[in-house]
Design a protein that fits this description.
Distance between the termini: 37 Å
Shape: globular
Helix content: 10-25%
Strand content: 25-35%
Number of strands: 10
CATH topology: VC0467-like
Number of helices: 6
Radius of gyration: 17 Å
Oligomer: single chain
Length: 186
């Protein structure tokens, strides 16, 4: 993958020694990247200890965990799902992964049991970069790029996702994936 080519569906992996607590060992799915508006993505491996029904009043009952999407607009809720063909106004990120969509229709689909917890992930806030900012961070080697696989969101265990995606890149990255998260002094 071109080291500076970021498009919808690109995965950003925080380099292993990144200290920023917002992004340490983060796996971010890029959902929108354009020259005019910058880049929007969601951290897909940082679950919060809450369910969506604890955050939104008058929301249909669904046992769906909420994830920390990033440090921008943490007073907003977003969703990524695999039901883009039935949720109007969804934006396709890659085949099998869509972002957003008609909120009222989403509630109807949940009430009708057409959207189940394994079909959707909710996020508080998002990760965002202004025009040129992400390219600059890539130049500093803050991020490793990978391709998205829908299983990363809908089937993988968030706790091990950074290590899994890094390992899947192979070669040197498989060795990097084995670096422990916490370093101790000997």
């Amino acid at each position: 993958m071109d080291s500076y080519k970021v498009e919808n569906g690109t995965v950003l992996l925080a380099e292993p020694f990144m200290q920023d607590p917002n992004f340490r060992r983060s796996v971010i799915l890029v959902c929108e990247n354009n020259k005019e508006d910058g880049t929007v993505g969601f951290v897909i491996n940082k679950p919060l200890q809450m369910k969506i029904n604890e955050l939104i009043d008058d929301f249909p009952e669904i046992e769906s965990q909420v994830f920390y999407g990033g440090p921008v607009a943490t007073d907003t809720i977003h969703y990524i799902h695999n039901v883009g063909e039935i949720l109007d106004d969804s934006q396709s990120v890659i085949p099998g992964v869509s972002w957003g969509g008609d909120y009222e229709k989403l509630k109807f689909l949940i009430e009708s049991k057409l959207v189940l917890p394994h079909n959707i992930r909710f996020f508080v806030g998002y990760s965002g970069w202004s025009t040129g900012q992400l390219k600059e961070e890539l130049g500093y080697k803050s991020w490793v790029l990978s391709q998205m696989d829908p299983n990363y969101i809908f089937k993988s265990k968030p706790k091990h996702l950074w290590q899994q995606v890094m390992y899947n890149l192979g070669d040197t990255y498989s060795v990097i994936s084995q670096i422990p998260e916490t370093q101790s002094l000997n």
